[in-house]
Amino acid sequence: MIGLLQNLIDALSLGSIYALTALGIGLLFGILRLINFAHGDFITIGAYALIVPSADVTARMLIGDFNIALMLPAIALIVIVAALLTDALVFRPLRRSSPPTLMIGSFAVSYIIQNAVLMMYGSRPKAINLWSDANTQVIIGDLRVPMLQVITLVVTLALMAGLSVFLKKSRYGVQMRAAAEDFRMAQYLGVRGNFVIGLAFAISGILASAVALLYVTQSGSLSHTMGVPLALFAFVAVVIGGMGSLVGAVVGGFLVGFIVTMLQAYLPPDLRAFRDAFAFAFVILVLLVRPAGLVPARNTVERV
Amino acid sequence: MKIRFLMAALLSGVATLAGTFSAQAKEDSVTIGMAVAMSGWMEAYDGEATKMAQLWIEKTNADGGVLGKQIATVSADTKTDRVEGAKAGQSLIQQGANLLLVSADYDYGAPAALQAQKAGIISAFLGAADPKAGVLGVGPFAFTTIAAAQLEGATMGDWGFEKKGFRKGYELIDESIEYNKSICAGYKWAFAAKGEVIGADTFKGLDPVISSQITRMTDAIRTKGVDHIMLCSTNPGAASALRQIRAAGITLPVLSGTAMDGTYWLNAVPNLKDFYLPVQALPAGDARPAVEEITKAYTAKFGKPPTTQYAYPIYAWLDLWKAAVEKAGTTDAKPVVAELEKAKDAPTVLGPRSFTNKLHIQTDIPLLITSFAGDKQSFVEEWRVGKTIPDPVLYRLAGN
């Protein structure tokens, strides 16, 4: 019983980081039909933004040493600028292209960001110590609850709630949803398309910077491909959850975290190495039963 | 099939011809080719060893060169790409390389080494810890400069049992590369012979969290009395795993492989202690004057000392190669390889080295145990397992 409960806590911790990443990917897909594989590299940018840009083997904190009230907006701003730049340079010229073309574009962006990081920061993985105070744990009976997981969970739920309120209540949120529903029609009705899309990129940048900080606090390590597996699993989460639905993205994120953790915990040792293969097989099963995802978005139902 | 064979024969023929052609053109010198990564992520592993090779060449030329000839170098960037690696190897062979140095990893170095093998030229991996980087993989002309990953794990297991009194081990294996699995295969072989390996778990280097692995580990520590952890991983996964292990309040001693050598990653694990790994040399605090001298010369030439021990092994290997070439009186592969294979505990600046006609990698040498405390890595003692690693462990046949 304790074992199962502990595994559930572990699953929540992995799930919340996937959910937060999936939120960023799901948002852009909802508005732009863009499956942004470069989202993981936005996370990488957010993490590397903490340190002095140099090829030295030992990383020195720069923004990472700022007061937290200054550091959060600074990191967010850097990732937002990066996200807006990719929109302006790559995705705006591809605006009328088909979703597969956009996706290929995002692969190219991902490749360019990774190599730019290699060029600027050198090829050796780096190590930093961010907020090690958050890396403590609360012991409740036999249960181990890491503080950082609680923080990650709270941040994920808060950002999801904030984003939902923004989309439902604010003027720009309504415009964004209108654009997601029918982009052409929204434009006819006076929604400034490029502005709304830029806004979506900026928000996905904020989400990526949150993931970056939580992830680096957890792992203490930076590498040029650090965001790639996150984006991959988050993309799967978006697909399971229902493409275009934000709640779906979060639900999918938690589900993927749950599946991976339970497989890691209960698979026999010889099969554990194939954990991800089992996880993806389960994803296929989910999609066979519910092709539109667990929480299908209204506007994409017919398209799938 | 026939056509492919013919093509291969033709191509290698052309390559050999081109090789002899330009080699003849440069008969007054011996040429060392460097098909290494100067860009991409492998640069972190190739860069310093390549610099060390340059240092060796400079010193050797100052001492009169090899066979009375000066050593010339040619180099090409593999760009951390296997296809580029093959091209780089080929072009250097065409430029007349008599010896080819290749990337510090079996997968990334093999494409260039295979070109050398086909052209009948000796190749040396700057730091591949896989015995396939030799006779049974690339071919009889390929060597690697370092010890098998299995020996790293075996050394830690044996030393841990004898000197630290460890009896019950637990393996945490990063599945992302083969090297990690090889370290733990060696550890298991050596430690299970004397103590008991209680359990093993796996993760992937870029997993965002390893909570469920830590849960299982905590359980094994509480219920089965595990007294140390063997972490078989490479950075960035290794530092991340260690940070999470320590953050979870697990203070048991942790053993690891050579890949975590160096202090550049210590920021990830504040106040790390009780962490041990084996190396072949220490950039700071090596007791051997010859190694200190190399470090000094390296620092003088390149502005800072090597980051890790991976810079050093090529130096010792090139010394052996030079001795073999001078004995054979030629740089031709066959006689030189025959000379190299006579090495049995042959002394080098880094300690004894042996080669046989089956193994072109070190599987039985003393390694230096180092420990980490207070942001410093320091020498503990030299340790030699002194047993032959069986083939199923060395080649990781079923179940190993």
From TrEMBL, chain A:
Query: What keywords does the record list, in alphabetical order?
Result: Amino-acid transport, Cell membrane, Membrane, Transmembrane, Transmembrane helix, Transport
Q: List the transmembrane segments.
A: 12-35, 42-63, 69-90, 102-123, 143-167, 194-216, 228-261, 273-293
Q: Where in the cell is it found?
A: Cell membrane
One GO CC annotation:
plasma membrane
Enumerate the InterPro entries for this protein: ABC_transp_permease, BCAA_transport_permease
- From the UniProt record, give one GO term of the biological process aspect: amino acid transport
Q: Name one Pfam family in it.
A: BPD_transp_2
Drop me one GO molecular function for this one. transmembrane transporter activity
**PANTHER family given in the database record:** AMINO ACID ABC TRANSPORTER PERMEASE PROTEIN, BRANCHED-CHAIN AMINO ACID TRANSPORT SYSTEM PERMEASE PROTEIN LIVH
Q: How does it sit in the membrane?
A: Multi-pass membrane protein
Q: Note whether Ribonucleoprotein occurs among the keywords.
A: no
Q: Which CDD domains match?
A: TM_PBP1_LivH_like
Name of this protein: Branched-chain amino acid ABC transporter permease
Family designation = Belongs to the binding-protein-dependent transport system permease family. LivHM subfamily.
From TrEMBL, chain B:
**Top-level taxonomic group:** Bacteria
Q: Where is the signal peptide?
A: 1-25
Q: Which UniProt keywords apply?
A: Amino-acid transport, Signal, Transport
Q: GO biological process: any one?
A: amino acid transport
Q: Which Pfam families does the annotation name?
A: Peripla_BP_6 (PF13458)
- List residues of the Leucine-binding protein domain: 29-360
Q: Which family does it belong to?
A: Belongs to the leucine-binding protein family.
Q: What is this protein called?
A: Leucine-binding protein domain-containing protein
